[in-house]
Structures are given as C-alpha cells and as structure tokens.
Design brief:
The complex is a heterodimer of chains A (about 600) and B (about 300).
Chain A: H1 3-10, H2 13-17, E1 24-35, E2 38-50, E3 55-59, H3 66-74, E4 82-91, E5 94-95, H4 101-107, E6 112-115, H5 129-138, H6 145-158, H7 164-168, H8 177-189, E7 195-199, H9 207-224, E8 227-232, H10 235-241, E9 244-249, E10 252-258, H11 259-264, H12 269-277, H13 283-288, E11 298-313, E12 318-334, E13 338-342, H14 349-356, E14 363-368, E15 371-372, H15 382-387, E16 388-391, H16 405-415, H17 421-434, H18 451-463, E17 469-473, H19 481-498, E18 501-506, H20 509-515, E19 518-523, E20 526-532, H21 533-538, H22 543-551, E21 575-577, E22 587-589, E23 595-597
Parallel strand pairs in A: 3-8, 3-9, 6-7, 7-8, 13-18, 13-19, 16-17, 17-18
Antiparallel strand pairs in A: 1-2, 1-4, 4-5, 9-10, 11-12, 11-14, 12-21, 14-15, 19-20, 20-23, 22-23
Helix pairs in contact in A: 5-6, 6-8, 8-9, 12-19, 16-17, 16-18, 17-18
Chain B: H1 2-28, H2 34-39, H3 45-55, H4 61-73, H5 87-122, H6 127-141, H7 144-158, H8 170-200, H9 203-210, H10 215-227, H11 229-253, H12 258-267, H13 271-299, H14 301-304
The chains are: A alpha/beta (about 600), B mainly alpha (about 300).
C-alpha cells in the first residue's frame, strides 16, 4: 500500500464532514490535583475539536498533561485526588464532565475506546483472551456469551493476529508484546467506537513491531471511519499518522496545526525545539563523515564470546533447553570511540554488557584494556573494574534515594580507596561541573532532580574512577527528546575531552546514528552486520539491518515512506533444545571493515 | 505439571523424615524420665529397670529411632506408655474433631478477613478503612485464651446463644472456630487490603474500566482473582499456626481433639503420643502447603506453564 499518498488525501476527509460538527469538543478544560497545599492545576484551558474519521495527535514530553486529558475524556481520572475543575467535554450532544458513572459506562468501550502504552500489563493475567474480549462486547450489547465469542474471534482476525482460534483460549502471558497490543486494539475496535484514544500505543514495542501496529491502526481506522486521538512523545509517529497535531507543554496548549504545516512552519519556539531535538535518521551521516581511520589502541576486545543460560525442567530438574543469549560475538572497541550495539529486545545486547563487567558467566575471550577477564585463566579484579563502568536506563532506580548525590558520586572513589577525603570531594566537584551540574547541588537527594539531571549524576558517578570504557545501556531511552539531545551532546564532549570510550546499547536507530562511530547490529544473539556509522546507515547490506532502518518512523510528514514487507509473527525465540545446534552466522568483510553476515 | 507435583511430594516426605528425627532426638534428651512416670513413685530400682528394658529405652538413640522408623513406614506409631492403646487408634479417634475445628476456623478467618480487607481497600483512606484496620490490629494482638474466654462469657454465658463447651452439633463449632479464626482474620484482612490496593492500581484494572464494565464486575472478575493469589500461599502456612492454637482452644472449650490429647501426653511424658501428634501435625502442615500450591497452580495460568 502506498500509504504516503493515501494518507495525505485522507487528511482532507474531515473538511468534507465538518457540516456534521465535531464528534468531540473540549472547551477550556481544566484538570487539577488536590494536594496538601490546595488545588494544583495540571491541565490549563485546553480546547480542541475532533472530527469524524480524522487522526489528531497530541504531542508533548512527560508532564505535558496529554495522558491526563485522555483519561478525563474517558472519565477515568484517578479519584479522588485528580479531577476536572473547569470547562467541558462535549461528545456529540452529551456533556461528559457532569455525566453520572452509569451513563459514562455506556460510552466507555462502546462509543469511546482506549488502548494503553503497556501491552504487557494491560490485560488481566488470569483471564483468557477470548473471555476478556467477549466480556467487553457483552457489557454493551445484549447478546449471548457464545455470540460474543464469535464476534471476538472476528475482531482478532481483523487485527491480523496469527492463529486467532487458538488465541481465544490462551492467557496473556503466552503472547508477545506486539500480539497483546493487537488484542487490545481488537478489544477497542470490536464495538466500532466513534473515537479511539491511543495513549503511546507503540512506545513499549520494538521498532519493527511498532511499524506493524501503526499500519494496522491506520488501516482499521480508515475502514471504520473512527476518529483517532493519538497521544505520543514520538514526532516520527506523529508525522506518519496524524492529520492534525496539537502540541502541549506542562499542561498548557502550545499550538495546533495540520501536520504538514506544523512540521514545516512551527509557530512556537517550543515546537521548534521539540522538532529540532528529534534525532532523525540521516542527520548523523553528515557529521560522521569527518571520521578518520582510527589507529588508537583497543580498550575492549571480545573474541567468540558465548553466553548461554540453562533451562531446567522435569522431575529431576535436568537441563532440557538453553537460552542462547549471545553466540560467537567478536568485536573491538578503540580508545575514544563510541561503539553502538543495536537490536530489538531479546537480541542479547544487554547480555554482552553484563558479560563484560562479570555479571554473567561467558566463554570465549574478553579483554578489557588488554587484561584477560575470561575463565579459566582470567578474572575480574578491582583493577579491571576501575576501567569499566556502567550507566543504566532508569536513572531514578539506579540512585539510592537515601543518599546525597555527592556521596553517590564519591562512593566509587571510597570503595577503591582513591585519594584522601578532601581529594575525593574535589573530584566530585569537578565531576559535577564536567557533566553540567552545579556544585551547590552536591548536598541534595536524587528525588530533587529531573530525569535528565539524574542521568547526568549517573554519568558523573561512572566517570569518577576515570574509566577507559563506559557501558551506556539504553541510557537515554527513558528521557524526553529535548533532554535526550542534551545528554547525547554531553556524551560526545566526554569522548573528545577525556578520551573515554563508550559501548552504547540502544534500540533507537536514530539515536545510534546520531552518536556512534561504529555500529554492530544484533539479531538472535549474533552480530549480523558491523561497520562504521556511514556503512551501516548509508549502505546497509543485511536484510535485517534494512528492515530495522526502514521501520523507523520519520519525522517528516511529506516524505513518502517505502513500503515494508509485512512481517508474519515475531522474532524467533533464542531458546533451543539442548540437542539442537545453533546455526552460526559467518561475517564477511565487504571492504573497509564493513562486516556482513552471509545470508 | 505432574513433574512439579511429584517433586513436591518427595520434598514433603523428606520434611516429615526430618521432623521425626528432630522430635525424636529432642524427646530422648528430655530431662524427665518417662519410665519413672509409668512405674510410679514407689517402684523399686529393679522394676524401673525392667520396664526400661521392656520398652527398649535402654538401647542407644539410633537403635531406638531405627525401630520407630521401621514401625512408622508400616503405619505403626507405637503404643501409649500409660494407656496401653495403639497411638494410631488414639489419634484416629481424635483427629476428625480437630480437622473439623480447623476447617471451621479457616472458613471463619477467610470470611471475616477477606471481606474486611476488600472493603478497607475499596474505601481506602476513609474512616471505614481506619476502623477496620484497628479491629484487625486488635484481632492480631489479642491472645487466644483471652478471646476464647471473652467469646464464651458474652455469647455462651450472658446471651446463651451457643453451648459453653463440648462437641457434637454445629452450635458447638461456632465459638471455637471464631476464637481460632479471629487471629487469622486480622492477618488476612491486612494482607488482603494491601494486595487489593496493589491490584486496583494495575493497568488491567484500568483496561477493565475502560471497557465499560460495571464496578462490581471490575472488582469481582478482574481485581479479586488477582488479589487473592498471594493469599492462597498463606493458607498453607496458616495450618501450622493453627496447630499451635488448637492446644489452647481445645482446652478452653473442652473440644476432644488431638490438641487435648497432646496436652495430656506432655504432662505425663507419654512419648509415643507426643511423637505421633507431632508427626500428624507436621503431615497436616505439609499437606496444607501442598494443597495451597496445587490451588495456586489451578488459579494462576502463569505458574502452570512454568
């Protein structure tokens, strides 16, 4: 399907149907939370119209109030603290903010349906898929449970779920994230609602799965003429899906426009910042082209590294299966280099990081700064630990909430007995300034900082021992784009100023392209393509690399997207019977260090 | 799944073996001499020695234990020193009463505890929640003999609704079950409350509401089955706590169960009965836990596939 053209023409649809009036109208909506200090407003004076069949994207960073707005429309604001304190929500003739619970229930799921961000937790774990679907239908139509199940089956077929009959009798944990999100969509659309609210529907999914789910949503919406409110922080998704865009910040309306105009001529400064901060595929190529051939020494050398986990089962608990997390991975990271590992969830990229710091057992050779840490001869001692540090995904979870941040940054120095207390404190002050924080923040606690600042603290802590290599495992994934852009700049500065190397692990192709010198693409525990950033993104050779790159939504509404072969099913499992052998991928040099797996 | 169950059965048998060994050793080291109790104060040293030989108590510890164990696998729990009856017969005549009491107590504590917990969770932060939690706190902290006597005084002596003691009809069962159940219901209401609060916060409860289901359906079909999962494992552990409580409660209400049997046996150092009751109680706890695991397996599909 050539989506690009059809979508643009589809954007005109609401103009022809405006005579019938908007299907949803928000008028000066205010939402506030009751705190000990009185009412605190969360959403201010928000007004917008939604027309039949159109897609309105509400874009904004965390805390912008976009999710609260959608919950207010559904009448699902968390009681009693958060409530609508002014304005109105008109759904056709009905005013939703004053509607009673039972009248609201008639609308929920029936006229206005919603799908959520987390498909893994959005379905009841102890109830069969078929029952959960049928129950939603039975709640609004007086049909027998048997008929409802038949409708449920039809709904599962419409979301292109494989083996729909079997799925009815399965429980949520037997399905992958992408499959669960399809079930959620089937549930939401089974009753052909007037409005579908999708709150970050693909944020938790891998990029190729995201592509499938977005395609599905758009196809179904077009078939049914449902109006779609798409809530997202991802400007790429906005560009691909939306007819109109509404930008929010801190609970305030920023601007609203049709998608092409908003991307080409943003009126507000914030919208410009937001668009500029979005890492786009293609941006990195120009800046990376200055790369010279690198002759610096290696800080990490991996040679045929294998990590497998045993799965025990049966009465005697014998090993029957193995998870082949990492298979025969060889790579080298040079001093002052940003090396990225990219791949979808379960591909083994984090396991490599764990093997490098000795958190999982491996076979093969790993040398850190020339020191062998692999069994049976090598071990990780404190000398090696000083050379290699980690920064994790969730900065709040990786900082002890009861310690002052200065102590947290100083702790590695204390553990390794580096310098006197006064010297350590001077080092902490230096590190704080180095990562862009100020000295007077040293005595504060982690909860007093924003997400981006917390990640800076984690980076400062990783730098404390002057390591040769920092492993950044999805370190910017949890950050808002504008914050993410600044942290990426900091990482690049650290490389050029301090000569530290990074192993950057990410699922985000655009971020990887933006920051990396060299990239390795992983699939099912093995590297399928490895090379310089230009090689991977400029001339990708392996089919999986191409699929990953083409699946990334582009933040350009005018660009016509190449069609992607629809994938059937999910990534195969890395769990194999113990008797099975793993087909090893052989890498071939295609010139200039561009390694490609032979297909 | 069958493999999992078989593994648990084997584990349980090993636990029982361990219990028998530890109890046997502890009783062997007991400073009180059972032979003196049997022979009486006026017995000569010769008589005492004869009885000791007759009962095999002059043998070394491991010989005695081996003999007990070989009897045990044939279902022979030995004879009571004083009553000269088979221990298995004694326990068999008392066990049904105790099991009935336990069933009543579990029913009472679940009924009171779970409903209190659910209501408190749904009315979280209100006066209802707070008063229910105060009640549960009292339930947890009051000693059982006090609760038992209090219930007896109010409902049997003053109001005359239930008999003062004894065994036979449903009315006899109510007060002892309540006495045992009140302690447990305090624990259960607290656990149920926090489990329910946790579940009500989950995404799938929000999904259920977004579907337009009624409040009752959201609570009973979606929240409750999930909230009850951690409670099931508790019930298995609970049987062990009951075994302690039963000794007290059976004495207070004159309930002819194994608690009373144990109490009398301890006073008279009747070692075979003490051993028998301990093993039967241990078996009850082990079976209770096994059942709890089995129920979890049936209710939670996620464990089933593992």
């Amino acid at each position: 399907m050539s989506d690009g053209n059809i979508k643009r023409s589809g954007a005109k649809a609401p103009e022809t149907s405006t005579e019938s009036g908007p299907v949803l109208r928000l008028d000066h909506l205010n939402i506030s939370v009751n705190t000990e200090d009185g009412l605190r407003p969360l959403v201010h004076d928000l007004s917008f119209d939604l027309h039949r069949g159109e897609t309105l994207a509400i874009a904004g960073e965390s805390g912008s109030g976009k999710s609260l707005t959608s919950l207010a429309i559904m009448g699902l604001l968390p009681p009693p603290a958060v409530r609508v304190t002014g304005g109105s929500i008109h759904f056709g003739e009905q005013e939703l903010t004053t509607l009673g619970e039972s009248a609201l229930r008639q609308i929920r799921g029936n006229r206005i349906a919603m799908i959520f961000q987390e498909p893994m937790t959005s379905l009841n774990p102890v109830m069969k898929i078929g029952t959960q679907l049928a129950e939603a239908i039975c709640a609004h139509e007086s049909i027998s449970f048997k008929d409802a199940r038949a409708r449920a089956l039809a709904a599962l077929k419409s979301v292109r779920l494989s083996e729909p009959e079997k799925r009815l009798n399965q429980f949520p944990h037997e399905l992958s994230g992408g499959m669960r999100q399809r079930v959620m969509i089937a549930m939401a659309l089974a009753l052909k609602p007037d409005i579908l609210i999708a709150d970050e529907p693909t944020t938790a999914l891998d990029v190729t799965v995201q592509r499938e789910v977005l395609d599905l949503l758009r196809d179904l919406q077009r078939e049914m003429g449902t109006a779609l409110i798409l809530i997202t922080h991802d400007m790429g998704v906005v560009a691909e899906m939306a007819d109109r865009v509404l930008v929010m910040k801190g609970g305030h309306f920023v601007e609203e426009n049709d998608v092409v105009s908003l991307f080409s001529q943003p009126r507000e400064a914030y919208t410009r910042d937001l668009l500029n901060a979005v890492p786009c595929l293609g941006d990195g190529l120009a800046s990376a082209s200055a790369n010279k051939p690198n002759e610096d020494p290696y800080v990490a050398e991996l040679e045929n590294v294998v990590v497998r986990f045993n799965v025990r089962s049966g009465i005697l608990g014998r090993v029957t299966h193995r998870v082949h997390a990492v298979e025969n991975v060889s790579l080298n990271i040079r001093k002052g280099e940003i090396f990225s590992l990219v791949g979808e969830s379960g591909c083994g990229k984090s396991t490599i990081a764990k093997a490098m710091v000795g958190l999982v057992k491996h076979s093969g050779r790993i040398r850190i700064n020339g020191i062998d840490i692999s069994p049976p001869y090598g071990t990780i001692d404190n000398q090696v630990r000083r050379e290699i540090q980690m920064v994790f995904q969730d900065p709040m979870a990786s900082l002890d909430p009861r310690m002052r941040v200065g102590e947290l940054v100083r702790e590695p120095l204390v553990i390794h007995g580096v310098g006197s207390v006064a010297e350590q404190k001077r080092r902490v002050e230096y590190l704080f300034e180095r990562v862009g924080l100020s000295r007077d923040q040293i005595e504060r606690y982690p909860h007093e900082f924003s997400g981006g600042q917390r990640q800076r603290i984690c980076i400062a802590r990783a730098l404390a021992l002057n390591p040769k290599l920092i492993i950044a495992d999805e370190s910017v994934s949890a950050l808002d784009v504008t914050v993410q852009a600044k942290v990426l700049v900091l990482l690049k500065e650290l490389v050029s100023d301090l000569g530290v190397s990074f192993l950057f692990i990410s699922h985000d192709m655009a971020v990887v392209e933006n920051i990396s010198d060299r990239v390795a693409v992983m699939y099912l525990g093995q590297i399928v393509e490895m090379g310089s950033c230009q090689q991977i993104f400029g001339t990708p050779r392996h089919s999986y690399t191409r699929r990953l790159i083409s699946a990334v939504p582009t933040a350009d509404p005018t660009r016509e997207r190449q069609t992607l072969a629809r994938l059937v099913g999910d990534v195969p499992s890395p769990v194999r019977l113990i008797s099975e052998t793993v087909p090893h991928v052989t890498l071939e040099n295609a010139g200039n260090g561009h390694m490609i797996a032979i297909e | 799944m069958i493999g999992f169950f078989l593994r648990r059965v084997i584990q349980s048998l090993l636990i029982l073996l361990g219990v028998s060994l530890i109890t046997f050793v502890l009783l062997y080291w007991l400073p009180a001499d059972p032979v003196r109790q049997i022979a009486g104060r006026s017995a000569t040293a010769q008589t005492v020695e004869n009885i000791r030989q007759q009962l095999g108590l002059d043998q070394p510890l491991w010989v005695q234990y081996w003999r007990y164990l070989t009897g045990l696998v044939q279902g022979d729990l030995g004879r009571s020193y004083l009553q000269k009856t088979e221990v298995s017969t004694l326990i068999a005549s008392r066990l049904p009463a105790s099991l009935l009491l336990m069933a009543g107590a579990i029913f009472a504590e679940l009924l009171i505890g779970l409903s209190m917990g659910v209501i408190a969770a749904l009315r979280r932060g209100t006066a209802t929640d707070q008063s229910l939690m105060i009640v549960s706190f009292i339930g947890v902290s009051a000693p059982q003999f006090v609760v038992g006597l209090l219930l007896l005084y109010v409902f049997a002596v003053q109001l005359g609704w239930f008999p003062i003691g004894g065994y036979g009809t449903f009315a006899h069962l109510v007060l002892p079950s309540m006495t045992l159940g009140i302690l447990g219901s305090g624990w259960y209401s607290r656990m149920m409350r926090s489990s329910m609060i946790e579940v009500l916060r989950q995404d799938y409860v929000r999904t259920a509401r977004a579907k337009g289901l009624t409040r009752l359906r959201v609570i009973f079909r979606h929240a409750l089955p999930n909230a009850i999962l951690p409670i099931i494992a508790m019930i298995g552990i609970d049987i062990g706590i009951f075994m302690g409580g039963i000794v007290v409660v059976e004495s207070v209400f004159g309930w002819p169960g194994i608690g009373q049997l144990a109490w009398q046996a301890i006073q008279r150092v009747d070692i075979p009965i003490i051993m028998g009751v301990t093993l039967v109680s241990a078996a009850a706890i082990v079976i209770g836990n096994l059942l709890a695991d089995l129920i979890s397996l049936l209710v939670d599909p996620r464990i089933r596939t593992r």
